[in-house]
Write a structure and sequence with these properties.
Elements lengths: L14 E5 L6 H13 L3 E6 L7 E4 L6 E4 L1 E2 L10 E4 L4 H5 L10 H10 L5 E5 L17 E2 L6 H6 L3 E2 L4 E4 L2 E4 L5 H16 L10
Length: 205
């Protein structure tokens, strides 16, 4: 998979991790790949590689191949300014664990990220499924999510907010994959604020 061209911008030197698995929402993933690079950030897609060098996934809409060669089991979440859990079935697939008494690697990564206030957590739509096994991470937090998950997030002790995008400290959540442009813009703005960099213009992207 060719890397997106990274421009100089307010997020130059910033790394953003996006978790990946099959049956993802293709317009969303494609948008992240280019939009964050447009502001100078390097985007790295992470997945569970199951001992392989790389895995190729196919999206929900067009079935286009997307190859990932970075393992989420081998990274320190502190190297990233933000970790994004996208919409679609990504979170559901990544929360699978062979041993029900152990957290899945992606869930452990998310738990570690929540323990690091310096890491911005971005979770959109059904992505909050990944937090189901670690409800303490979102307990008492204000979140947006897909309508189908409102009961789930309330059972996790989170406070559902009926908005397209919600910012609660180091946690940014959004309603559905169709809101990925608003979600991404909010992530860019929050990361720029943290760096003390100029905030990119709001042009609807």
């Amino acid at each position: 998979m060719a890397e997106a061209v990274i421009k100089q911008g307010p997020l130059t030197g910033t790394r953003i991790a996006v978790l990946m698995e099959s049956d993802y929402f293709e317009p969303e993933i494609s948008y992240y790949r280019h939009r964050f690079a447009e502001e100078g950030a390097r985007v790295e897609f992470l997945t569970r590689l199951w001992g392989q060098e790389e895995l190729t996934f196919r999206g929900h809409e067009f079935g286009a191949p997307f190859t990932v060669d970075r393992s989420l089991e081998d990274v320190d979440p502190r190297r990233y300014a933000a970790i994004v859990v996208p919409s679609g079935m990504v979170a559901d697939r990544l929360r699978y664990t062979e041993d029900v008494n152990r957290l899945a690697p992606a869930v452990r990564l998310l738990r570690w990220a929540f323990a690091e206030p310096g890491v911005l957590k971005g979770v959109i739509c059904h992505g909050l499924w990944l937090a189901a096994a670690i409800p303490q991470t979102v307990h008492g937090r204000k979140v947006a999510c897909h309508n189908n998950l409102v009961g789930d997030v309330r059972n996790m002790g989170a406070e559902y907010v009926d908005q397209d995008v919600v910012v609660d400290g180091d946690l940014i959540t959004a309603r559905t994959g169709e809101h990925h442009h608003l979600f991404a813009r909010t992530l860019v703005e929050e990361l720029a604020l943290r760096k003390g960099a100029p905030i990119p213009r709001k042009d609807g992207r």
